[in-house]
Amino acid sequence: MTIDTPGMRALADAEPKVFWLDRSDLPEPSPPPPSGRVDADLCVVGGGYTGLWAAIQAKELDPDRDVVVLEGDRVAHGASGRNGGFLDASVTHGLANGLEHFPGEIERLLAIGRDNYRGILTALDAYRIDAAFEATGELVVATDAYQVPGLAESAALRARYGEDAVLLDRDEVRAEVDSPRLLGGVWQRSHIGLVDPVALALGLRRAADALGVRIFENARATRVSGAGSAVRIDTATGHVEAAGVILATNAFRGLVAPIRRAVATVYDYVLVTEPLSEAQRASIGWKKRQGLADSANQFHYFRLTADDRILWGGYDAVYYYGGRVSQRRDQRPRTMSLLAEQFFDLFPQLEGVRFTHQWGGPIATTSRFCASFGTALEGRLAYSVGYTGLGVAASRFGARVALTLLDDPSADVARLDFVRSRPFPFPPEPLRWLGITLTRRAIARADRREGRRGAWLSLLDRLGLGFDS
Q: Which pTM value belongs to this model?
């Protein structure tokens, strides 16, 4: 028997498709590479943000460089087309995480992140990319009383490091976004905005095309190996030989062992509502259109789209045994139902609103919650992976790091501990599944116990390791 709840009624007609990809301006797929051998100076494996930024920046640095991009499916098919569109300047998955792992470099990393953020906005203008950018900032809110004291600490920390961060009490936060669950918030008004993620990816693709990059879709790389002084990248129809290779595969199976050890693939799920009516819109306020996230370990992120829908995602980060990416995992009815009920718990005044889209997708996470970089094949291959769900902006920096590791490994940025160090590796199966499952259960228990983290999470904290939603 189906339980009749606001969430279940709202999900009744939701289509199992990605809202951002449900559009009429998607280009026709490019052909796969011809059979046989293709030669290039640089081969980029992966046509998401990292791969496209790598190709663009490679051509900006050397217009004569012959650059090929191999994309296993379609550009923006992976996380670059399925995310919430939060453009956050941090390259370390937030200030607090950066301080925890790289305290001696935090000032430099903040400066790098802000410069990278400005570089993205400059590129949007230079390449005439309409990514629907909104300089809204982000509002992090408390939905339970135990989370409120941490808001003041967060606001003070952000302000100390130069961010425009405002602490809001219960009445002030509800004046911004009206929900009976909101008890306070921190509004960071600097270095965070919102974009349409697929419009950004398609704009980067057009920019790469205009610069002379050869992009091949439906060309999944199956193997990389040394080929004399070059690197060989095999596909189903042939192979590419290039002087240098960048792996920008993120959540998809790493083609070299260091990536497979550093990255675990988890699935994130998202709902999008129908456009709100004028009355529904007025009932929640939200006139400044900030991106929002709550303060729990299992947190939600939510935002308004250009046509006043609400995108609502997060909470349930699911790891499947073996970590394989599979299209059948893009839908998870149990999680969709849970998200729908939680939505109306936050916004009871919106009961009756319907969801039109529901989807999931893979995210690459590391044990330090931010990207991992490295090289292989005697320095002829570089990689940047593991953005842990906050890669819309950080991927541009990750692409530049990968290029630097190939072209000038003695450069200052390549000597950063952030770049040289490696996250603690995830163990092989079945220990990987057991460890992540134990951690997910401990995180859920901590949220039920007013944030008290327990012995297992406390041990991971001391080791600088973790996993959250």
A: 0.95
Q: Where are the beta strands (DSSP E) in 248-385?
A: 264-273, 291-294, 300-304, 310-314, 355-365, 372-376, 381-385
Contact 60, 202 (CB under 8 A): no
235 CB-side CA count, 13 A: 26
* Half-sphere exposure for 205 (CA within 13 Å, toward CB): 25
Q: Which residues, 6 or more positions from 450, have their beta carbon under 8 angstroms from its beta carbon?
A: 144, 145, 146
3-state SS of the chain: helix, strand, coil percent to 5? Answer: 35, 25, 40
Which amino acid is it at 452? Answer: R
Q: What pLDDT sits at residue 298? A: 87
pLDDT, one tens digit per residue, over 196-246 is 999 999 999 999 999 999 999 999 999 999 977 899 999 988 999 999 999
What pLDDT sits at residue 467? 59
Regarding the domain delimited by 36-85+197-258+370-420, which CATH topology (the fold level of the hierarchy) does it fall under?
A: FAD/NAD(P)-binding domain (3.50.50)
Give Cα separations from 110 to 102, 113, 181, 290 (angstroms): 11, 5, 32, 22
* Residue ranges in the chain whose pLDDT is less than 70: 1-3, 466-469
Structure tokens at 174: 């509800």
First-residue to last-residue Cα distance in the chain: 30
